[in-house]
User: What shape does this take?
Amino acid sequence: MSWEMVIGLEVHLQLATQSKIFSGSATTFGAEPNTQANAVDLAMPGMLPVLNRKAVRYAAMFGLAIDAEVGRRSVFDRKNYFYPDLPKGYQISQFAEPIVGRGRFAFRLEDGRLQEIGITRAHLEEDAGKSLHEDFHGMTGVDLNRAGTPLLEIVTDPDFRSSEEAVAFLKALHSLVTYLGISDGNMAEGSMRCDVNLSLRPAGTTELGTRTEIKNVNSFRFVEKAIHRERARQEDLLEDGGSVVQETRLYDADRDETRSMRSKEVANDYRYFPEPDLLPVILTEADIDALREALPELPLDRRQRFREDFGLSDYDAGVLTDERAIADFFEGTHAVCEDAKLAANWVQGELLGALNAADMSIAASPVTPRQLGDLILRIKDGSISGKIAKEVFEAIWNGEGDADEIIEARGLKQVSDSGALEAMVDKVISENPDQVAQYRAADPAKRKKLSGFFVGQIMKASKGQANPKMVNELLLKQLDNED
Ligand code: ADP
Ligand code: MG
Assistant: This one.
């Protein structure tokens, strides 16, 4: 039998507020345990939550950016469950009236095709604390620094049919939320975590099969691997005539397998009810208009503009607009050198290559857009060749100065003086009579290839600084002149 896979995602996005969603404690990652947890986060009796305005704004911005319904009124609820790292005994979340309702999300697949999936809802909630099992022998520690960190939980419709689609969506979502500046998107620190709901059904049928939910997968690669593993597991079960049990599973990356955590709680186990300590959140039309006004240009729009205004290929435009900081860097470079093709090549090639090799983000780049733009100008005006420019780039990267200073200090200026070049051509011709004879005896079709030898000698002798175009012209003039 052939099976169709169906996937729906729930993404927990940490919002980039400085303080928590209901208290004034800081949200900075990596602090000593329990140094960022105050009486509200510790659930001391009588403490009252105070809603963080920025968290509400960020959630609404997300809704507006994907053209979803943004609730003019939304309500917080208590989701009741017991866990050691949840001292209140309930999580404040949103249930019946979330801040973001139905929407659509468009994104591009790896091959550039446009895809659209449904967003079921997105709601605000607080994160729980962390149980630390490793640091205390025979005991469990509880760190409440993360308790109360604002999360936006984004729930998709079961619209994905492959791991490629799911991962492309997550990448596009990551790009969108970092463009919006509503999350730092740092997956290694858990700023974006994903639950994967997956089921199979016989190909060609429409009814959904029983699903499992794989919790808290925190990298694109693990999402892909977890999907492959879980699909294979379910397929084996179904092929053997068994059935899938609805349950929560976890993905163990070390063993590359999914494992059962607990059977799935039904929703009403949580006894949701409206949070009595918080008023409903009301957004006026003026609030919404102001937020819409403040939205930046979004990734897909920017990609299209890069294609149209700069004449870039869809692929180049995609790479350059994936991350807002890269797109800004490209535009900054282009503003200086006014050559889109060269700027695109240099940003994608040398710059991203060097950043990648050094495991650095573009924000930390030692080369600025102006410096790269200046370097490209020197290629354009013939001062240096593309090859020498790579050497100059490396020197700029190492902090040796701007392009002009380095070209000057290292004497890299391209030799375009025809007198000097002619002398070099004369020299190579008189020193290699055999090759000259061979060239002149060859038929014109083969000559081009044979002339490469002479160009190579001259470039070598000039340490790459001879203007290759002029060398070629002068050389052919001499070689083809057989008198
Ligand atoms: P819960 O609230 O119990 O987690 P929901 O019905 O809200 O469950 O769905 C959660 C996620 O699971 C959504 O992303 C939804 O698209 C997805 N989902 C629901 N049913 C299925 C299914 N049969 N197969 C795959 N995904 C599903
Ligand atoms: Mg769920």
